[in-house]
Amino acid sequence: SPETNLIKKRNLGIDPIFFNAPIVVIIYSNNQWNATNATIAMTFGMLSAQSLGLGSCWIGYAHGVLMENSRIRIEQTGIETYILGVMTLGYPAVRYSRAPPRPPLNVRNIEK
Question: What span, in angstroms and rounded, lies between the C-alpha atoms of 18 and 29?
Fold first, then answer.
């Protein structure tokens, strides 16, 4: 099962969820209807991190586990309310090249 595989990896010292990221950000609220605001905040946080040379990753699996299992959520985070998003931050181990420059497009307007 997926849970068994995660436990095996964890016992081998592998972090299969957060991949040893130095920072895990958890956004939570007493109001589950703040999810849209949390999504906007995380998106801008990820864009800001990129501008500082940091990598970021939205960890949907952790979000799901923490929302579905209150025992794990409270034991691991101390959070008793709604988890609205989970992401990791850190300096990437690999640098990716940007897309190569492209010539300008030849765009024509169609008028009535």
Answer: 22
* Token code pair at residue 103: 């010539």
Q: Compute the CA torsion angle 28, 24, 42, 68 (nearest 10 deg).
A: -40
Phi/psi for 58 (5° steps) reads: -75, 120
Kind and range of the H or E run holding 106? none
Strand-pair partners of 83: 28
Contact 81, 26 (CB under 8 A): no
Position 98 scores a pLDDT of 75
- Reading the block at residue 47, the tokens are 């864009």
- Distance, in Å, from the CA atom of 57 to the CA atom of 74, rounded to the nearest integer, reads 23
Residue 37: pLDDT band (50, 70, 90) is very high
Beta bridge partners, 55, equal 90
What tokens appear for 1 in the block?
Answer: 């099962």
What single-letter DSSP state applies at residue 94? S
Query: 87: closest CA among 31, 29, 25?
Result: 25
